[in-house]
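Marked as duplicate of an earlier ticket. Keeping the data here for the record.
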Amino acid sequence: MFEETKFRDKMLKTYYYDMYLHYGYKMIRDIISRSPY
């Protein structure tokens, strides 16, 4: 039971981390492409 909860927590963290990386990267790329430099 405890291990299952820990596992699910780890999965959620990985999922959110992937989402953060994906969208963060996209946002940064958009900002760079919009900047005048």
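See parent ticket for discussion. DSSP finds one helix and no strands in the chain.
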